[in-house]
Amino acid sequence: MWMEQVARNWLTWEMTGSALQLGAVNFVRVVPSVFAGLLAGVLADRISKKKLILVAQSWSLAVFMLMALVVLSGHLVLWHLYASTMALSLGMSIREPVRAAYAPALVPKEHLIGALSLNATAMNGSRVFWPAVTGLLISAINPGYSYLMGVVFYIVLEILTLMIHNADAPDKNAVQGSMAGDLANAARFVFGHRILSGLLMSRFGPVTIATGFQVVIPVFAVQVLGMGAGAYGLLLSAEGLGAIIGGLTLASRRNIQRPGMIALAAGTALGFLLMLGYFMTTFWGLWVLLVFIGIAQVAFNSSNNGAMFSHTPAQMRGRMVGVRNQTRALVPVSHLGAGALAQVAGAPAVFAALGGLTLLVLWGVQLWRPEIRHAR
Question: What's the CATH number where 74 sits?
């Protein structure tokens, strides 16, 4: 996933030289993310989670194969990047909610936040190595090899998924009802629950808005730092290193009593760290800042997710995740806004604006639902 993101964003920037196009290519993910994410949440409570994951991974594998052929053959045009972005978003939008809903079935409740932290560490920590590798491939050989390596990894991933043998029996009540009814029940359940609704709405700051900065990192690397694709990959790797540090720190805790308070502290730190990005003028200054941003991101996501799962009954987990993931599905809107702002005011202004908005949303929700900071 991270290799594809680096290759896609760099190819878009190289072909167009437009920060707005960067935002637009990432924005098209929003359509499959919103609708497929909700559908996946319902399906996760109806049929085998393992089978759903295998189907979604097979879809992504096929897209990576096609893009490897297109890029390596030298026939890439801009619409290929738009189409592949939408197609990969569809696969991820189905896979990720199902994987998240599967996690609580695999570990005891007291280890759930630790398990979610390890999962976040694995996903985000992969940015330590693979974005840097992709940057080198782009600089020295051909970005098409990034997609080719993705093909190899997806084959391995399919094999590993087949090795999971834990039961994931569907919810019998969900199977009996209509899918539209299940979606409506999920929405009523989440928004009718004061703590769940507060935890969900708080995500629009540190998750939906804050993540928009990632799309302007290649612009920052070129326009502010005067560097190229290698620097872009290394900057994303810094964020991944922070994710590993934050994830392993949380995973090492035997029992986290107040995840709501941890989420508030981490989200607040994330907002201020993003605002500091406005003042960064050196590669290493930005690199260190991105390490701390990665720590704050994982700490917020893991603690927020753990608190939401602890207030959700097992038979509703898939549908809750489908509703929750709409905050991530709308990240491309933030990408589009970040790209447009970078086109007008530059990449540093994007960091400052997103950091301020993150704090505004996070603390606005805290005033509206003060009980979420005490969620366990």
Answer: 1.20.1250.20
